[in-house]
């Protein structure tokens, strides 16, 4: 039955799948538009911080105003120079706003307190909003802290991009071609069920991926672990690295450590593809009319299904990751002699006997999150590139003319994008001293996000209510004005905490040489150094940027939610029932 869409249609209940993906996707759009608007101001801020020289400056050391920096930059390099290097910031903002708005909507659903019963007005809207914003802040801090301290400390985040890009392009191409080929053969020559076919084909594709791409992965890891200083580097490029590795151990040197990957990849790939294929079919429930690739629903469906696949794959494969790590650290077994190798089975049995089965999942949350994001990118981008390269044989709706070529091109392009995203994180994990180091400054980061988010959303909600009640502004004007005021309030309240966080994270990791011994010690020393004003140094560029950026972000978010909600079958059913 097809449901007739009417406007306005009641939104789905908070917490439903439709609302989850709608708010996360709308947050992504909001972050993207906000970054586009705000990046020129970020550029100006950076140039001011580096004390750019202006010919008109009367004396050396004279401060440059934002307007002077803006005019000088456009005159000297053109307007587009203000967007130089914008791609990273756009991606970061898109992900950040997706997390912010998506989590906020889910916490609001969790804390929902109706006054009388289901469907009744919210009994304590501001308390719920404050609690939701604070909880969102805690989650954000846990995610952002490692990345912020990494950006403070790291250099050369794209060293090793070449082999990473080659690995992902070649690996993805082989991976998906193998999966489709195995799936076709199993469908044709066996009586397996759909889920069995997906599992077996996925299990077969995993080893093919690693056997093909592992030499490139070895080169990538070695290059990234090399010294950053060119004078101290052992390897002077990809070819030189490959040559030296071959001299060191022949062809086998490139496959050192392959066996644990092969053991792990079969169940993980099987579960991933089973979860992905099942999730796609659960979401595409439009009876006999599948959604055309490229539509909003399908974009969301494939990214969301990829997330499900990543989570299930991580849960299935994490024990084997643990065993691999323990083997790499040469765990000691009483029954083995010094220097003898430990087999995976020995490591598994020993770990379970000594610490129990659950010890194999210790620290799994980070890996689950990483896999969820990684598979969301992998499967989501694959679907979109397949749509982009679609070559029907006769016309719209006809069969694909060159399916293998389209699949290979899509996988290769996905690999390029993946490499650009993964390379900084992989080199970071190789170079950072420990996971604990990634969370230095977590306390001020957490406080900043909790306090800032609470003020941010309470201000937005309050200003929006006032403007809707007492003015004749259009909805978009209301969203924009409220967002601008909320952004201003956020930075005024949270900037001192942001200053403390940045200073703590920039301090050395070695405790013997640390200048600041904690958050309170840092705050005390900063106050002695410059009084209250020391905590607000650099605030003006943030305020200048915050108002237009947050205005655009909230306008984009609210408008995207309005556009997406009617597309879901849930909304159509509600509309039909209301008739």
Automatic annotation (TrEMBL):
Its main location: mitochondrion. GO terms for cellular component: mitochondrial membrane. Pfam families: Mito_carr. InterPro entries: MCP_dom_sf, MCP_transmembrane, Mitochondrial_Carrier. It is a multi-pass membrane protein. Gene3D superfamilies: Mitochondrial carrier domain. The keyword Transport applies. GO terms for molecular function: O-acyl-L-carnitine transmembrane transporter activity. Keywords: Membrane, Mitochondrion, Repeat, Transmembrane, Transmembrane helix, Transport. GO terms for biological process: carnitine transmembrane transport; mitochondrial transport. Solcar repeats lie at residues 18-110, 193-282, 297-388, 474-563. The keyword Mitochondrion applies. It is found in: Mitochondrion membrane. PANTHER family: CONGESTED-LIKE TRACHEA PROTEIN-RELATED (PTHR45624:SF4), MITOCHONDRIAL BASIC AMINO ACIDS TRANSPORTER-RELATED (PTHR45624). Belongs to the mitochondrial carrier (TC 2.A.29) family. This is Mitochondrial carrier protein.
């Amino acid at each position: 039955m097809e449901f007739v869409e009417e406007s306005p249609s009641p939104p789905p209940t908070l917490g439903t799948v439709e609302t989850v993906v709608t708010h996360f996707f709308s947050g992504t759009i909001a972050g993207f538009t906000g970054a586009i608007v705000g990046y020129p101001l970020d550029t100006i801020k950076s140039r001011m911080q580096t004390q750019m020289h202006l010919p008109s400056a009367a004396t050396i050391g004279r401060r440059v105003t934002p307007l002077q920096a803006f005019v000088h930059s456009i005159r000297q390099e053109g307007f587009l120079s203000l967007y130089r290097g914008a791609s990273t910031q756009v991606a970061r903002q898109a992900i950040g706003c997706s997390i912010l708005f998506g989590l906020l909507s889910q916490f609001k659903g969790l804390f929902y307190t109706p006054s009388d019963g289901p469907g009744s007005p919210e009994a304590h809207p501001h308390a719920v909003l404050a609690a939701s914003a604070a909880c969102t802040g805690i989650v954000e801090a846990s995610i952002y802290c490692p990345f912020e301290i990494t950006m403070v400390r790291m250099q050369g985040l794209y060293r090793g991009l070449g082999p990473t890009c080659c690995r992902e392009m070649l690996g993805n191409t082989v991976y998906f071609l193998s999966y489709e080929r195995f799936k076709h053969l199993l469908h044709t020559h066996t009586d397996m069920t759909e889920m069995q076919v997906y599992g077996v084909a996925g299990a077969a594709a995993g080893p093919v991926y690693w056997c093909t791409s592992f030499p490139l992965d070895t080169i990538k890891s070695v290059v990234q672990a090399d010294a950053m200083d060119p004078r101290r580097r052992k390897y002077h490029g990809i070819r030189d690295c490959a040559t030296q590795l071959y001299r060191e151990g022949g062809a086998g040197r490139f496959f050192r450590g392959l066996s644990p990957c092969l053991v792990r990849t079969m169940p993980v790939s099987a579960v991933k593809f089973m979860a992905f294929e099942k999730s796609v079919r659960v979401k595409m429930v439009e009876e006999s009319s599948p959604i055309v690739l490229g539509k909003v629903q399908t974009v969301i469906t494939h990214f969301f299904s990829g997330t499900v696949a990543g989570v299930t794959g991580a849960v299935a494969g994490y024990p084997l990751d643990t065993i691999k790590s323990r083997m790499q650290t040469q765990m000691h077994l009483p029954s083995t002699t010094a220097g003898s190798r430990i087999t995976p089975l020995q490591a598994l049995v020993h770990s379970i006997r000594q610490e129990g089965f659950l010890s194999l999942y210790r620290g799994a949350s980070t890996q689950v999150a990483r896999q969820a994001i990684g598979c969301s990118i992998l499967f989501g981008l694959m679907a979109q590139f397949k749509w982009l390269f679609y070559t029907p044989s006769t016309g719209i709706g006809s069969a694909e003319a060159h399916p293998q070529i389209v699949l290979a091109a899509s996988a290769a392009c996905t690999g390029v994008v993946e490499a650009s995203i993964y390379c900084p994180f992989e080199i970071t994990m190789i170079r950072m001293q420990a996971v604990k180091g990634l969370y230095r400054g977590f306390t001020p980061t957490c406080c900043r996000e909790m306090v800032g988010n609470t003020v941010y959303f309470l201000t937005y909600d309050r200003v929006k209510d006032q403007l809707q009640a007492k003015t004749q502004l259009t909805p978009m004007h209301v969203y924009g004005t409220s967002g601008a005021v909320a952004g201003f309030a956020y930075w005024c309240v949270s900037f001192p905490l942001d200053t403390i966080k940045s200073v703590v994270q920039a301090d050395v990791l070695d405790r013997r040489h640390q200048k600041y011994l904690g958050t309170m010690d840092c705050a005390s020393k900063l106050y002695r150094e410059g009084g209250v004003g020391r905590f607000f140094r650099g605030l003006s560029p943030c305020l200048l940027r915050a108002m237009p950026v947050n205005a655009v972000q909230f306008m984009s978010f609210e408008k995207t939610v309005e556009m997406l909600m009617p597309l879901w079958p849930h909304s159509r059913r509600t509309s039909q029932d209301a008739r």
